[in-house]
Specification:
Layout: H1 12-20, H2 31-38, H3 42-55, E1 59-62, E2 68-71
Antiparallel strand pairs: 1-2
Helix pairs in contact: 2-3
């Protein structure tokens, strides 16, 4: 496995897979949790989350001063 650094690119599908690989994919996650799962910086994860929110049904909500959580809505 190659060492991840500044030049490492993550696809939107890889970020989405973090949500979908869990038992409850609608459970909100922070950008830091996504970053930990992917092994990237919080800023990289945040940029991808903003992209996903603009292009998909990924949703976010501010939950504190500078805190935001992200989730995939469950449509029933």
């Amino acid at each position: 496995m190659s060492e991840q650094g500044r030049d490492t690119e993550f696809t939107l599908e890889e970020v989405t897979a973090v949500f979908e690989s869990r038992d409850d994919y609608a459970e909100p996650l922070t950008a830091s949790e996504i970053a930990d799962e992917l092994g990237c910086s919080r800023r990289t994860a945040l940029n991808k989350l903003h992209e996903l929110e603009a292009d998909t049904d990924l949703t976010s909500k501010k939950v504190g001063g500078r805190s935001r959580v992200w989730w995939i809505p469950v449509h029933v």
